């Protein structure tokens, strides 16, 4: 929006989200763990020079390295700290005034072969005000002293990171009698002098002393909680230390959720090739469009001047060719991918941290629920889980998941557990839908498999190339892809048992149940044998798809979290289709699914089960323990919802067209949110319009939904071209796709080699 260096924003501006969460202006701040802080500062020497306020910052800083440190050092003396495991030295040097002694110490680092500290944090003024009773002469002397020190600090800033900490305001009503002369007016005068003098002689941008002024803003909000009116409360000091860590370490550690002070990543070889491809597609489409437009104008109807009659064109308007349609799709996709890159890879738009409040999650939920109910229409058919109903189900679940992500509700365990059920419900539909298709149609052809795989994976493959992310990063698509292949393999392997064959003999039903039992056994074995699972997915080329950060643990964790629900979906489809075949359920318009008595009993049990699960999920205290139980019990709430939604005839006969519309593009919504609605790979929020949070959400949401809808149409159009029904043509296309992935692997290997 304004451009400039995000480091400057981090050091100078921001606001509080709630009471303790600090949000820098325009960028995201990473919360460093002890191990990360050590890795960043390994073999580094950090020095804090100043008074008791700087000493407080020193202690907060070293607690990021070692939380066990206690503030037991000499109050008015030097305090050393060393972490031998990482060879980190952090020293506090007691110089409460900017005077000759401080100048001599700083000068010693600029002379000869003395090792210079890598980070120097300096600040002092309150002692000068206190000792000299706030006199104007003291301020004049302060200006002289800082003028003599400034060139030395600028010289050090060429090779080290030098920070001058401006003085925080005080809470004057709480100051003791001996400190009453330290007023905010005096502090402002000293700060103004420091800012004006520092860097005044420096023309080299690399030799700049960084002014740490953000602590003033933090103190203005929190100084009232001070115990003596002078020193900041611990939470504020910790925030300052974390800002300092972000300023220095983000460019080294490059955390995903720490966009402050991170340079824009350079384009990779594959990204450059993708850029060239999309550029050529755009130019190619424009050229073909111009040619067709000129042909159309030449053949346009015109009036014969002699007879006064209209002449008919000799040639009709040509149909859109496959090449033109292909280029049109890639042209649109290229423009969309440019927007993706600008949003989440270029430092063009601002990013902010998430901050959860109950209202930020539940108010939008109520709002979309009202909208969904308002758009109620009659269904075309009244079968259980008909197409309109499943689209509606996907739609409202996707909207809830989107609100969950943008509000940062994962920190609230009851909401997290309910969202886990929604993800499980998606996988349940995967098992139900694909089993029903194969069971009823008996179509195990290559065309069907390729169509499904293309529609599931096209967008993710493009994003992996454009955004330089591994396939496993978009974990949900690998999950549904693998489960689709498992369902296909289970039913396609000999003997192929489908409904038409099973109608001839009940034994085939037992054969299918035996297949499902074998599948359940394999799932159970892999879920409790991490070693076997990792061996399977560590083989090339599977390892290229499922590794994240050099191992497949994340993939195993995601797979294990909902390991039984696809099986439950397949089993439900089998039982439902068997009941439907034997006419044991009534699916007429307005009719209850079973007899009134049975329907009422099942409805009562379903409502009780649904509420019981919600009560259990809301009472969860430990995420790990609840995740262990989730795979076995999530099906309870899913089945309860299906029965509540389908047993009453009227409820089964209506659906929300609002939710169903979103359901048709649910996969695109889920994937696109990573980069153009959220930011920093879902860790933060994209800010297109700073300063107006609600308006920003409205604008970014509108663009995000339009883009997802457009990508859905592009995917459908390309699926018809890339995956044709003709087997010989399909085989040629598959060879081309194999060549594409071989080339991608080759360039990826070159890219990795150049990085190393």
Provide an overview of this structure.
By secondary structure, this protein is an alpha/beta fold. It folds into four domains: 248 residues, Rossmann fold, CATH 3.40.50; 54 residues; 375 residues, no CATH class; 31 residues. Helices cover 61% and strands 8% of the residues. It has 29 helices and 15 strands. The strands form five sheets. A six-stranded mixed β-sheet has the order 4-5-3-6-7-8, sandwiched between helices. Strands 11-15-14 form a three-stranded antiparallel β-sheet. A hairpin with a 6-residue loop joins strand 9 and strand 10. The longest helix is centred in the middle third of the chain and has 30 residues. It is elongated and about 105 Å long.
Q: Strand order within the widest sheet?
A: 4-5-3-6-7-8
The major pleated sheet works out as: 6 strands, mixed
Give the N-to-C terminal Cα separation: 35 Å
Q: What is the subunit arrangement here?
A: single chain
Q: Give the percentage of residues in beta strands.
A: 5-15%
- What would you report as the Rg, rounded to the nearest angstrom? 33 Å
Query: How many domain modules?
Result: 4
Overall, the morphology is: elongated
Mean pLDDT: 91
**Count of helical regions:** 29
Helical content (DSSP H or I, runs of 4+): 55-70%
Content-based structural category: alpha/beta
State the low-pLDDT regions, or none. Answer: 301-318
By DSSP, the count of extended strands is 15
GO molecular function: N-acetylneuraminate 9-O-acetyltransferase activity
Membrane topology: Multi-pass membrane protein
Protein name: N-acetylneuraminate (7)9-O-acetyltransferase
Subcellular location: Golgi apparatus membrane
